[in-house]
Amino acid sequence: MTINAFTAGTYFQDRNTTNLVGLKSRLDTLSGQLATGRNSETYGGIGGARTTSLSAHASLSALDGYDAAIAANDTRVKLTTAAVTQVSTLGATVQKSLTSTSSVAAGTVVQSARNSFDAVVDALNQEAAGNYVFGGRITETPPVASSDAILNGVPSLGLDGLKTLVSEQVAADLGPNGNGRISTSASGSTVTVSEEGTGTAGTETRENFGFKLVSATSSNPTAIAAGATTGGTSPDVTFTLANAPKEGDRIRVAINQADGTQTFTDLTVTANPPAGSTDTIPLGSAAATAAALNAKFAGQPVASIQGDASLGIAANFGTGAPASIGLTVNSTPTAGDTLTFNLALRDGTTKTITLTARASADPTSKNEFSLSGDVAGNISTALSNALKEAAGTTLSASSASRASQDFFAGSKSAGFAPRRVSADGNGYAEQASTKTVIWYTGDDTATDPRATATVQVGADRKLGIGAQANEAPIRAVLAGIAQVAVQSFAAPTVGSSEEARYFAVSERSRALLSSSNGQDGVAGIASELSLAAKSMADAKTQNSYTRAALQDSLDSVDTVSTEEVTAKLLSLQTQLQASYQVTSMLSKLSLVNYLS
Fold first, then answer.
1. How would you label 33-62 residue by residue, b for 16+ Cβ within 10 Å and e otherwise?
2. Chain-centroid distance, C-alpha 329
3. Do 124 and 83 meet the contact criterion of CB atoms below 8 Å apart?
């Protein structure tokens, strides 16, 4: 504490000086407020209201950040939504053309499908502000390979495209005899129909390729008796690994379903699998990993397994029994009697072959057998013809559909390359191919594509706006269009095998494209993104209301009324001028002036 010097007789002068200094300080403060419009240049100058000011300014700054994020991502969301909508529209266009176009225009449909496929790929490689929007968290490079590379491969790099995979799948399904791996033979009065393949190799083949023999019926069982289906059994598949896996290695297992389709179970090797996890395998030795796989898939109809080549995975299919049906010709049937054979395909569809008895029939017929001569031999010949016809049309189309879906289920993760038929043709290769085009190189580890890109629109609100080209509905559109784009039809004529193949391909393409419709399809993705865009717009509006309220609260703390400050300033100037005048008069006072 400082004690000022005191001189007798100067009290009133000192007090007046202090008042003048105080008035001058207030004058400076009011002048500053009038010039800046602010209450004070420092938070200390507004006293206890500084807490309110600091809080409000922090909230306003956060709102500015939210609005900036919304503005920066608005174009991205709109572009992504438009691209997804275009994918949906292109799929619907191809689907409609396959429904309304006759086989005569098959070549035009194939070219149209190729053009649509090109457009879909372009849509999935859209970018906003230098970021590719369909790669999930990987935005620096285009997520989808070129349409030409996808369909035709890259020969200069030794990479095969979808056309090659379709060709391999068709060959594997039709088998070396072109009959869908169903053989038929006659001995005396007995006709035997059986799935082909024996031993371990035959078991693996039957689990993956060709028709599945289901049943046979006779319209006149007295003349021709159709026996029950026998065999068709397969032992449990067991696995071995040559080398121990590493953390993060991925393994894909295909399981045959009751309807004939196959589904993938994708597994990741990890040291600490979460409790109850169904998509992980504990990290361990090669033997321990094989044991875990054997335990996990015990009793399940395994079709194939695939992993990185470094793992040396192998599957042992054991020796099963092929399905077989016997027909016995007890007496000469009546013309018009029929035999019906039911076959299952690997895409969940079925094929029915009906043979009709005729007094005489062309030996090359695919739907009739002659009652003249060796009836059992005639049935076997007609059925063989029908099997080859069905294999070259319906089964071939099914193969193209399966290969297309397998191709687009592949990804860049080691072990998840598109499945390839093994070199021996008995099944699928266990070592993931390195000679196949990887169509999608974006993020393939996220469980929620929308969460791969987010925008903060509020203190406690974050919206997902990400998208990935490998989402299941988009893959269905790609596979549905591509399986048509890789076809070549030799001028189909009415009733020809080429026409039948065209209609079979069209049917499967339409089925895939139909599966991509609705809320669970591509339209659902567009709906989610549109909802995110609407939520962003709503959040921006709400932020403007919040900003206005915060600004109102600051007006009474940070800012001043110009009119009020002006009035105070004028009043203070009057007071100060009067004080200066009094001080001037007092400063001229002397004894002579006082006595006079």
1. beeeeebbeeeeebeebbeebeebeebeee
2. 55
3. yes
Does pLDDT of 285 surpass 80?
yes
Identify the residue whose tokens are 């600004």. 551
pLDDT in tens, 72-101: 889 899 999 999 999 999 999 999 989 876
pLDDT of residue 208: 95
What is the per-residue pLDDT for 583? 66
Give the model's pLDDT for residue 552: 65
Nearby residues of 397 by Cβ (< 8 Å), 6 or more positions away? 501, 504, 505, 507, 508
The radius of gyration of the chain from alpha carbons, rounded to an integer in Å, stands at 41
409: tokens are 């289920």
CA distances from 519 to 70, 332, 404, 436, 470 (A): 26, 57, 23, 33, 17
pLDDT of 203 above 70: yes
State both tokens at 19.
């008042």
* ∠ Cα 162 167 172 (to 5°): 125
Mean pLDDT of all residues in the chain?
87
Contact partners, residue 539, CB within 8 Å, separation at least 6: 66, 70, 457, 458, 461, 463
Nearest residue to 67 via CA among 453, 460, 457, 454 = 457
Cα 263 off chain centre by? 16
- 445 CB-near residues (< 8 Å, 6+ apart): 413
CA 545, CA 548: separation in Å to the nearest integer? 5
574: three-class secondary structure by DSSP: helix
In 209-283, alpha helices (H): none
Fill in the DSSP letter of residue 160: B
Reading the block at residue 263, the tokens are 């589904």
Alpha-carbon span 389 to 169, nearest angstrom: 17
Q: What is the pLDDT of residue 48?
A: 47
Residue 357, token pair as written in the block: 């008895």
For 98-131, the pLDDT digits (tens) are 987 676 678 889 999 999 999 999 999 999 988 9
Query: Do residues 152 and 161 lie in contact, with contact meaning Cβ atoms separated by under 8 Å?
Result: yes
Helix/strand/coil for 493: coil
- Cβ-Cβ contacts under 8 Å for 141 (sequence gap 6 or more): 132, 135, 441
Burial classification of residue 267, based on how many CB atoms lie within 10 Å of its CB (0-12 exposed, 13-18 middle, 19 or more buried): buried
CA distances for 2 relative to 5, 521, angstroms: 10, 83
Please count the residues of the chain: 596
Beta strands in 201-313 (DSSP E): 212-218, 224-226, 238-240, 250-256, 262-270, 280-282, 302-307
Pairing of strands 302-307, 131-132: unpaired
Angle CA 576–582–586, to nearest 5 = 140
Q: Which amino acid is at 403?
A: A
CA distance 53 to 70: 26
Residue with tokens 């009324």: 561
DSSP letter at 260 equals S
DSSP state of 228: P
CA gap 584, 567 in Å, rounded:
26
pLDDT digits (tens, 9 = 90+) for 429-480: 999 999 999 999 999 888 899 999 999 888 888 899 999 999 999 999 999 9
Please, which residues have CB within 8 angstroms of residue 545's CB and are 6 or more apart in sequence? none
Would you say the pTM of this structure is higher than 0.90? Answer: no
**What six digits make up the tokens of 326?**
């016997």
**What backbone phi and psi angles, to 5 degrees, belong to 23?**
-65, -40
